[in-house]
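Protein fold
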Amino acid sequence: MSAQENDKVLRILRSMGPISLSRLVDRIRLQKLGYLAQELGAGGSYPYSWYIYGPYSPKLTAALYSGVESGRFDSAPDLVQDESGVVSRMKRLLGGEIPGHRTLELFASIWYMLPAGKESEMDKGHILSIMREEKPHFEPAEVESALDKIIDFRKAP
């Protein structure tokens, strides 16, 4: 993937509000938004692996810190059509608005653990079991609800 595709992820993140890295919850929010943006069509070559709060990319963290230090994020960008489309898909997945870090952690974690095309009842049970073990701070009902929303989202045209 090109630097231009990485820029799309960063532009999408900046369009969703100021880039702040001072608080842990802000960094979690940006990581999960970046992951979902990349998964929903922004492109980008930020590799993600599993970490305490779900999918995490050190390369995205470095790009965010570099952008803050250089002043690159001082003004909000005008998104092009495909970037706006990614934001629309993210909002549709998440229920209309971009939620806080906790809900983003939930959705990004489930998305990461549930490969596309693996939405059977057995797979659902496996994800629910993993989430109970890895992320006990989420209630089983909220995990199941988010999982169902992701499955429905993936089935929609």
Summary: The longest strand covers residues 49-51. The beta strands are 49-51, 54-56. The two ends are 25 Å apart (CA to CA). The helical segments are 3-15, 24-42, 58-70, 81-94, 101-113, 121-134, 140-155.
